[in-house]
Amino acid sequence: MGLLFSRTGRRTLMAVAGLVIAMLVGLGMMVSSIAAMASVPGGSWGSGCTYDAGKAGELIITNTATGDEVQLGAGQMQNAATILKIAQELGLPMRASQIALMTGLQESKLKMLANTNVPESLTFPHEGTGHDHDSVNVFQQRGHWGSVAELMDIDYATRAFFGGPQGPNHGSPRGLLDVDDWQSMPLGAAAQAVQVSAFPDLYDGWFAGSQQIIQAISEAAVCEGPGAASSGSWVTPAVGNITDTFGITTIDRPGGEAHKGTDIADGTCGQVITSAAAGTVIYAKEHLYRGFTVWIDHGESVTTGYFHMAAGSLLVKPGDVVPAGAPIGAIGNTGFSLGCHLHFQVEIGGQPVDPEPFMDERGATLGVPVLNGD
Fold first, then answer.
1. Where does residue 100 rank: exposed (0-12), middle (13-18), buried (19+ CB within 10 A)?
2. pLDDT tens, 50-75?
């Protein structure tokens, strides 16, 4: 559990925690829904995987702000898979992929659009037509973003949207990576910083839809050695400071047990939690003390656990095979918890081990140790 109070205060709160768990769970649900659009974790999403949009099928998603519903067909899902693939190639965090998907959903419903005002665009493969100025493609980029031929190429358009040192636009117009503090600002605000839209508040409504897309494509991913810890990459499951460490601590816990994992928190609920490595989900439901919990079997007797997840946020079920970095839920405050955080646990042969050195050895360092003490 996260060290979000002084140790004296925590001990006092623990004494009455049994009386207020129900209230805390309800509060966690409310905070989670409010904060869900604030942050998603870093680390390359699904590194080492290929994405078959055809296997993902069709999706019906809804803009939670406007109620607008859109059915995504094979072409739109392929565009989404291309966006995720390019983000992976560029080594971008999942936050970047999610911002790009939210932008594409708002601008074009993820369709490659030609424009009746740009006759040349009609000569290229497209999935619909628009008529807004000279805007074309999934991101509705205008002529100053590139030639018509370039803009009608989803690969070029995506790289231009991301921008940065490797981007074809070289900072003008600026892409996402050219925006100062894009990794810390709300996702919709980051999209607006790139798009400069007349409707800046609509991007955030596609947050849940972007999660659905990522989940659907991750389930259709083909990864090298899925389920085997030795053959897949390892990634940090969430971004934040380390707020409690493995082993004996001064915190009172049910049964007086030592802390069996590492707690990670950034002060908010709603941040997406991802699988630390490829594996098979063996547990995904609510637990009395651990709250909403997921366990993943990575093979070779290695399992990872993710505790206190937000109510209603679980994206996986037992039997699901997930790649490294696949979204599995969101940080919450459920169960025996005093603040929004992820309790991350690693077990080998059923015995808990310290997650910090375990993850360090696999190139996925957990947070920055910041302990609040007396």
1. buried
2. 666 666 667 888 888 889 899 999 89
Q: Could you state, in order of their start, the residue ranges of all structural domains in the chain? A: 7-37+226-360, 49-223
pTM exceeding 0.70:
no
Contact 263, 244 (CB under 8 A): yes
CATH architecture for residues 7-37+226-360: Distorted Sandwich (2.70)
